[in-house]
Design goal:
Helix content: 40-55%
Strand content: 5-15%
Number of helices: 9
Number of domains: 2
Largest sheet: 7 strands, parallel
Radius of gyration: 18 Å
CATH class of the largest domain: Alpha Beta
CATH topology of the largest domain: Rossmann fold
Number of strands: 7
Strand order of the largest sheet: 3-2-1-4-5-6-7
Order of helices and strands: EHEHEHEHEHHEHHHE
């Protein structure tokens, strides 16, 4: 299927590896010009080189990079110095660390909210008016399946991402955006084979006294698909939400969790 987005410009956060890289790769393969943002310059450079050498990427699709912390005003300014307007924005910042809520002070909460709620809102605010003027816009926020099924050791993430979910539910449904072909959706990953899950598994192992392998086996046993997800298939879901065909999908929370969530809504 031709997603109809070749030649568009996309900004992808946390794009040097994991789910962010999966999204950047899927978009680049659709002919989208992609600006990758991540804090770690060496990993980011390696990601860009991998995309540039990808035989599935059309030669005309540009791949640019900005090594910056997009959760800071300075980081966002560095991104906008490279390019100001985007047709597609994929917000993604590293999740807060797991732990016991009794150990988190105000600073930990503010940092989590700033990275996983306020930064996506700032990016949305910076782009939607231009998208409306051009008659096309796609914003995809990578959140977490914990928004629908909270995980006890991920309280910082549960709280911050739920706040973003509530904000998106309102703003995505404004007629000014939806009628102008500007959509905002959230992608909720379950257990994927990324560095993030390793940290989560380590946190659970520390809490339970079990090994990481034991914790992983128990996690996989709860997934009807019987495995962890891959960044590539997550990226494909992201690319579809960014497509022309997805213009009638907005304000939604799309679970990609192998069937792990047992609810009906």
């Amino acid at each position: 299927m031709d997603l109809g987005i070749a030649g568009k410009w996309a900004l992808v956060g946390g794009a040097s590896k994991g789910l962010g890289f999966g999204c950047a790769q899927a978009l680049a393969r659709e002919g989208v010009n992609v600006v990758l943002v991540a804090r770690g310059a060496p990993a980011l450079q390696a990601a860009v080189e991998q995309l540039q050498a990808d035989p599935a990427k059309p030669a005309a699709a540009q791949v640019l990079q900005v090594a910056a912390d997009i959760t800071t005003p300075e980081g966002r300014a560095a991104v906008f110095a490279v390019r100001r307007d985007f047709d597609i924005v994929v917000t993604n910042a590293g999740g807060p660390p797991p732990g016991d809520f009794r150990e988190w002070d105000r600073e930990a909460w503010i940092k989590a909210v700033d990275a996983n709620m306020l930064t996506p809102i700032e990016l949305i605010k910076s782009q939607v008016d231009g998208m409306v003027a051009r008659g096309f816009g796609r914003i995809v926020n990578i959140t977490s399946s914990s928004v629908k099924a909270p995980i006890d050791i991920l309280g910082l993430s549960n709280g911050a991402r739920s706040g973003l979910t509530g904000f998106v539910a309102g703003v995505a449904r404004t007629k000014k955006l939806a009628a102008a072909n500007v959509t905002i959706n959230n992608l909720l990953p379950g257990s994927f084979d990324t560095d993030r899950i390793k940290a989560t598994l380590d946190g659970a192992a520390k809490k339970t006294g079990k090994s990481r392998d034991e914790v992983l086996a128990a996690r996989v046993a709860t997934i009807p698909a019987g495995r962890l997800g891959t960044p590539a298939e997550f990226g494909a879901a992201c690319a579809f939400l960014c497509s022309m065909q997805a213009s009638y999908i907005t304000g939604q929370n799309l679970l990609t969790d192998g069937g792990a969530y047992p609810g009906t809504h």
